[in-house]
């Protein structure tokens, strides 16, 4: 109970600093997600962050950061490599009218996500077990999402191949990055262009405590060639660019 109180206090202070307000009950549900994460984390390696205040800032507030800068998405969203539900779960709680898909390749993590969706009641969210390289070619997923988000998944040159095939024309891919974001972007310019993306903006922000973060906003300006994504493993072994 004490840890939950610390979590909620840190989250509320961070939201105020960002000028964000959430729908009724959303913060409480984030607290329940954190409690489940803490419980499952004793058995599974879901996250390296254990402290309540640290989790509130580095996981939840960071996941919500785009809402302090961008208008809400006009259509469904997909979180590629969702892991324990970041950024997808906090975003789905903040945007209850938007459909979210949490795509994750590790079955144990998908089981956790499905438990979270059921226990905290997230009707606008579903967890899917599979690889981005496979789902990025399936009708109903390929070029079907207004926002594609990814956090702590892979370097941008590799990540672009996992994510841009999901973005519909005019939609955006949002890559959450740390201080190396601009360096990764410089390495990925050719890959982004090849996959139909164009850098719209690099937004820098600071989390409470001073950590510098960057949100890379990549707009989909042309269809992704049918060749991409390549078969599983190739994006990591032979990244584009």
From TrEMBL:
Coiled coil: none annotated. This is Ribosomal RNA small subunit methyltransferase G. Gene3D superfamilies: Vaccinia Virus protein VP39. Its EC number is 2.1.1.-. Keywords: Cytoplasm, Methyltransferase, rRNA processing, S-adenosyl-L-methionine, Transferase. Belongs to the methyltransferase superfamily. RNA methyltransferase RsmG family. GO terms for molecular function: rRNA (guanine-N7-)-methyltransferase activity. It comes from Ammonifex degensii (strain DSM 10501 / KC4). Its main location: cytoplasm. GO terms for cellular component: cytosol. Specifically methylates the N7 position of a guanine in 16S rRNA. It holds the Pfam family GidB. S-adenosyl-L-methionine binds at residues 81, 86, 104-106, 132-133, 151. HAMAP family: 16SrRNA_methyltr_G. It is found in: Cytoplasm. InterPro entries: rRNA_ssu_MeTfrase_G (IPR003682), SAM-dependent_MTases_sf (IPR029063). PANTHER family: S-ADENOSYL-L-METHIONINE-DEPENDENT METHYLTRANSFERASES SUPERFAMILY PROTEIN. The keyword NADP does not apply.
């Amino acid at each position: 109970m004490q840890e939950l109180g610390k979590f909620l206090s840190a989250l509320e202070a961070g939201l105020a600093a960002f000028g964000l307000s959430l729908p009724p009950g959303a913060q409480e549900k984030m607290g329940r997600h954190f409690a489940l994460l803490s419980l499952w984390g004793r058995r599974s390696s879901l996250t390296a962050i254990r402290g309540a205040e640290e989790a509130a800032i580095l996981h939840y507030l960071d996941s919500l950061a785009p809402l302090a800068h961008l208008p809400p998405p006009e259509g469904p969203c997909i979180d590629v490599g969702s892991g324990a539900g970041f950024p997808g779960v906090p975003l789905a709680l903040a945007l209850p009218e938007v459909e979210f898909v949490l795509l994750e390749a590790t079955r144990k993590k998908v089981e956790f996500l499905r438990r979270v969706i059921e226990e905290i009641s997230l009707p606008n969210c579903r967890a899917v077990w599979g690889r981005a390289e496979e789902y990025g070619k399936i009708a109903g997923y390929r070029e079907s999402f207004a926002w594609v988000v990814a956090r702590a998944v892979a370097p941008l040159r590799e990540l672009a191949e996992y994510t841009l095939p999901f973005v519909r024309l005019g939609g955006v891919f949002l890559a959450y990055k740390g201080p190396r974001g601009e360096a990764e972007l410089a390495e990925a310019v050719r890959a982004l262009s090849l996959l139909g993306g164009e850098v719209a903006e690099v937004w820098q922000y600071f989390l409470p405590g001073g950590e510098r973060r960057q949100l890379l906003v990549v707009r989909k300006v042309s269809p992704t060639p049918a060749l991409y994504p390549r078969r599983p493993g190739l994006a990591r072994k032979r990244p584009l660019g």
